[in-house]
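Final report, closing paragraph on structural work. Over the funding period we assembled a curated collection of sequence-structure pairs, and we close with a single example.
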Amino acid sequence: MEHRLGRLGRRAVPLRADPGTESRHLRPQLQRLGLRRPDDFRSEFRQTLQILFDGLPRRAHVFVASIPDIYQLWVLYDGDPIAEFVWDVANICQSLLSPARTADDRQFVRDRNADFNVVLGQECATFTRCRFDDNAVFGYHFTKQDVSKLDYFHPSLTGQAHLASVTWSASWWGG
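Its predicted structure, as stored:
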């Protein structure tokens, strides 16, 4: 079965002007899928950045990498009995990788991850010494060689090297 990366393509785009705004009918879906609300995520990330900048030396810089597009794992391994077994038994990212999820559920989770990346970029932009990767990690199109065969979720050594290159290029020091 062929899958496409969906509405977002290879790069995340803002889905709403403010990812924190959501209608009441989405709240039950968030709970059912075990996802956080963007407003909660924003508040916690803002607090984390503030703690960092309050405690770091004045000349320190912070680099924020985007959340990877986990939907790609499902695209790569949908129908692979070993990967699906490991995801199920190890309870890995069940909001997206569970066999019980529908295509709409998976797209909703992907959209929510894109929303979280919008939040990361917006909050990072409020600090002059913070740099966001502009969705470089989310937009990285990984292959099966980039994924560990241990859990079919985390990067392999090759994947770690590729992500290091992607983040270095987007960072204060490499870009």
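The longest strand covers residues 62-64. DSSP finds eight helices and two strands in the chain. We thank the funder for supporting this effort.
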